[in-house]
Amino acid sequence: MAWHETLEKLDRRWLFLIMGLLVAGPLVRPAGLPLKVSPPVQSFNDAIDKLPNGSTVLMSCDYDPSARPEMVPMNRTAFRQLLSKDCRVVVTVLWNAGPGLVEETLNDVAKEFPGKTYGVDWVNLGYKAGDDAVMVLMGQGIKNAFPRDYRGNDTARLPIMQNVRDYSSFPMLVNISAGFPGTKEWVQQVQSRFHLPMVAGVTAVSAPEYYPYLQSGQLRGLLGGMAGAAEYEKARGEKGTATKGMDAQSLAHVFVALCIVLGNVVQWVKRREAA
Amino acid sequence: MKREVPLFLTAVIGVFMILSFFVPHQWVSVPADFLQASAVILVAFGYVLGGANALRVNFDAIYKRSPGWPYKIVLVVSLITTVVVGAIEGRTFLNEHMRSKWIYDWIYSPMSSTMFSLLAFFIASAAFRAFRIRTVEAGLLAVAALIVMLGRVPLGDLLSDWLFQAKWLPGAPHTLHLSSLQEWIMDVPQNTAKRAILIGAALGVMATGLRVILGIERAYLSGED
Q1: Model pTM?
Q2: Which of B79, B103, B125 to mutate: most A Cβ within 10 Å?
Q3: What is the pLDDT of residues B110-126, one digit of tens each?
Q4: Is the minimum CB–CB distance between A103 and chain B shorter than 8 Å?
Q5: What CATH number has the domain bearing residue A105?
Q6: Which ranges of B64-135 does DSSP label H, i.e. alpha helix?
Q7: A78 pLDDT exceeds 60?
């Protein structure tokens, strides 16, 4: 059997095996490939850096465990950057399966700041059903939309919420989003309507969708997928899970590229032989 | 009346909500705020209806022994168990060693991540078997895809460094990096196409909204056009 026929009839489980090994190998033994911080990621970092210390920032974490490897690293680094600037962070979640994971992520980072207290320096308002309608409702009043936080506390009694009314109370919205409802809806319903400056961290597959908003200035910065999260970690001088995952992602991308090329070479040879 | 009343309500509320964008007076803003809050409550009821519907459809499939009915038993049992455990534990579900938290941390979360991770394997298989370059357009798409795919990861830059700074290729542009090419593709051609799609979609949404308000589009009532 000719080589191209062997490849054409190749059991796809071989491809799965190679992909598995290429992803698992670097996770076990990372090579530490050098990263370069791209302009959208640098803008994301700079936009948060330029916030006055002690500001109260709105952070919407719109994802669930399916997007964990991409979303959690960027959420962790952004929350860490905000706390290190003594910003107070009001967190909301618009994905019903998200609050547990978001709470875990926030708690992990908050432990690094022993002086920061829940309810004073940060609060997780949890999930509210309604997608875009919740965003609009928050424009009437944050406490009105979230009368209780994720832990069941009366929002109006929390010290962090004393100076929070609506979107005008925040100098910036940091959105970490894996899809709908997420960045697109925040831009359309809140940024354009309430003129709230905004940065976003999104999944790699959806990142191209937000480039028009980035170019128009509606987004001040953009993190795209695990690569964006890894670059953000580099910009912050951190070495988190995204940086560790980049070697695996690099090899996976190269393998997929090879599959595209090889698949087409096989078809090309087959067509030539037939002709 | 069964059809006219919903059409009338849709038209009045639709026009009213558009009006609320332009008229800040409290006679408009207060009812508009009330309607928005009502929308949130309606969505919450949607979850209850969704759950009830999932049960009805799956019970029916199990009763009729439709293909894959044993999986539907797993679905129904999981659904009921999660709801019952959550309802019993109430607000304490966040505490350590609670069953709700255990279900979320050790069943839902890993299963959800696994489903997403499987994409990597299927993408590799699809890239090998289905990504066929038969036309010039498909060729352009493939070249752009390869540049973006490789330019997004650190290995891409190492590859371009090796390729363009190698001694066997004298006079090659040393500044040419896959990451720079990738950024250009994302910023210029991709952005142009995406913007056009966004504008087209926005116009489509406005047209559909207008059709609903005017009662021309009635599919949302009972499936009729």
Answers
A1: 0.90
A2: B125
A3: 999 999 889 889 999 99
A4: yes
A5: 3.40.50.10160
A6: 69-89, 99-103, 109-129
A7: yes
